[in-house]
Specification:
Blueprint: H1 3-45, H2 56-82, H3 84-96, H4 101-121, H5 130-152, H6 155-165, H7 167-177, H8 179-185, H9 193-209, E1 214-217, E2 222-225, E3 228-231, H10 239-256, H11 262-294, H12 297-305, H13 308-326, H14 334-342, H15 351-372, H16 380-393, H17 395-398, H18 407-422, H19 438-469, H20 474-490, H21 495-536
Antiparallel strand pairs: 1-2, 2-3
Pfam families: Exosortase_EpsH (PF09721), Rce1-like (PF02517)
Main location: membrane
Keywords: Cell membrane, Hydrolase, Membrane, Protease, Transmembrane, Transmembrane helix
């Protein structure tokens, strides 16, 4: 073999690994989105209360599965970031495996099965039909998970990779699966008198600073603000933050071993992380109590018992680890760390990540404002800010989109807007613009006309449709168009019109216009609809 042949082989190996890495990120992102959709559907839309279903144990067990899967995905991602050899071996194996569209179709079928109870029983009827609901959720989740795993590579290849990782991956996955149990084991910490007393003093102080009239009883864990009385029990006390920070930091220390200065890590960073988690929980309790007193009690109660706290504490723990991983003061070999980081491609210029992450941020922002405001529309400025920040992060990738103006794109967007407006009904549930300040109106128009079209087209057409349609296969492209349009329709109150609009945007994309054409048509449609909504004060249009 000549030197040129060796270079070519090395280049081919690199391209295979790069292709595998992109497919891995795609499926991991899809798994997060699907898990998030199921959690939101049964936490906010259906609002399932296990204690009132008659199947408390089964319901609680299934709810814990969602937390375990979220922890599993998080820990797996952390493991692959830290263990570069395992990551390279996995991406190489995935890159060599053939694409399996049928497995991806199986994944989408599982998601639909998990959401079937909402269509069969309605959000209000889920609690009464909890047994078939739990069965369908578990069945759909298992099918979706199997499809996602098989879409990357066959089970035999997975087993080979798992054996190669040895004990470290097994340890990481075991930690992830028992993470909810670890949080429950640490709940008695809340009964330590010093902790609860200081926490209640600080929560009371924060509430008083906000101008609220506060009554509290630290011995009984009771706080009342303007008639809203709440008991902070062990499950909703925020002790899970201590557990998550401790578990993630312990796993990081085990995986990194001698690469970090363990004494500094545990004696300086760990106490600081626990203190930060505690302060975060004080703010969380105070905000939720104010929501219950001034906005809506049900949102405050759901906020204490939802997955929102788990997500926020997980993000906090990962932030602490990111600081540790980049701190030269904590790393025993910072030069090697910098060299390894230099080998990674620029994430901000990766179109795959740009197609997925802003959509996840948009969905997370919806959950956040739903937990804070009784009318989630009031929190739209926060949603717009989060979405804009996500798009700004990936601006190096987005600026690569090329577009030549085409009359058909503008005409398609105008036609969609016309049908949407003509078939709408006046919104009598919300006030007019006199009840909306200029910040709300401005951010609502910005989000509707610019931000949402970009994010939705990146995900539904630039990601899902492109991956499912493939190249030069008409039947596969038609099926992909129908599936992605149906998923797009589920994002809108009027499913049929949403699906039709998604089909038109997808057709523009497939017929040579590319992603930019779909974005422009979407922007035109939303701009015309937003103009009519603003002029008629019928905000239900958008």
């Amino acid at each position: 073999m000549s030197i040129s042949d060796q270079a070519l082989t090395a280049g081919e190996t690199g391209r295979v690994a790069q292709r595998g890495g992109r497919r891995l990120l795609l499926i991991l992102g899809l798994a997060v989105v699907e898990l998030f959709i199921i959690m939101v559907a049964y936490q906010l839309l259906a609002n399932v209360h296990c204690k009132f279903t008659g199947a408390d144990l089964a319901c609680t067990t299934v709810r814990s599965v969602a937390g375990r899967l979220l922890a599993l995905l998080t820990v797996l991602g952390l493991y692959l970031i830290l263990m570069r050899n395992a990551y390279h071996a996995l991406t190489a194996a995935i890159g060599q495996a053939p694409r399996r569209p049928s497995a991806l179709a199986l994944n989408f079928a599982g998601l639909i099965i998990a959401l079937v109870p909402l269509a069969l029983f309605g959000p209000a009827g889920i609690n009464a039909w909890i047994s078939p609901t739990l069965i369908l959720i578990c069945l759909g989740g298992a099918i979706a998970g199997l499809g996602g795993v098989l879409s990357l590579m066959p089970l035999r290849a997975w087993l080979v990779w798992l054996r190669g990782c040895g004990f470290s991956l097994t340890l990481a996955l075991m930690v992830a699966l028992v993470m909810p149990d670890i949080t429950r084991m640490m709940e008695p910490i809340w009964n330590i008198e010093a902790l609860t007393s200081v926490t209640f003093i600080l929560v009371t102080w924060v509430l008083e600073v906000s101008g609220a009239t506060v009554w509290s009883d630290a011995a009984l864990h009771l706080i009342r603000v303007d008639g809203f009385l709440v008991e902070i029990g062990e499950p909703c006390s925020g002790v899970e933050g201590f557990a998550l920070v401790t578990t993630f930091m312990g796993l990081y220390a085990l995986l990194m071993g001698r690469d970090i200065r363990q004494t500094r890590y545990w004696l300086v960073l760990f106490p600081a992380a626990l203190l930060l988690s505690w302060a975060f929980n004080v703010a969380r309790i105070a905000i939720l109590i104010l929501i219950g007193a001034w906005i809506a009690p049900e949102h405050a109660v759901n906020g204490f018992h939802s997955y929102a706290g788990w997500l926020m504490f997980t993000l906090l723990a990962l932030l602490v680890l990111a600081i540790a991983h980049r701190s030269r003061w904590l790393q025993s070999n910072p030069e090697a760390l910098a060299a390894a980081a230099a080998e990674l491609p620029p994430m901000r210029a990766d179109m795959l990540l740009a197609s997925i992450i802003p959509f996840i941020v948009m969905m997370l922002s919806g959950v956040l404002v739903s937990a804070i405001w009784a009318d989630p529309a009031q929190g739209y400025p926060l949603r717009a800010a989060m979405i804009a920040a996500a798009l700004l992060v990936f601006w190096p990738a987005l600026r690569q989109l090329a577009y030549r103006p085409r009359p058909i794109d503008i005409a398609a967007g105008a036609a969609i807007a016309a049908v949407w407006i003509v078939t709408s009904t006046p919104d009598i549930s919300r006030g007019g613009t006199d009840e909306r300040d200029m910040l709300w109106v401005g951010t609502r128009l910005l989000g509707t006309i610019v931000l949402v079209p970009i994010v939705e087209e990146l995900f539904f057409r630039g990601y899902l449709l492109r991956r499912m349609a493939g190249q030069s296969q008409i039947l596969r492209a038609v099926i992909a168009l129908l599936v992605t349009s149906a998923l797009f329709g589920l994002m809108h109150d009027r499913f049929a019109l949403g699906m039709a609009a998604g089909a038109i945007f997808g057709a523009l994309y497939l017929r040579g216009g590319g992603l930019a054409a779909a974005i422009v048509a979407h922007m035109v449609a939303n701009a015309l609809i937003a103009y009519v909504a603003f002029a008629t004060e019928n905000w239900a249009l958008i």
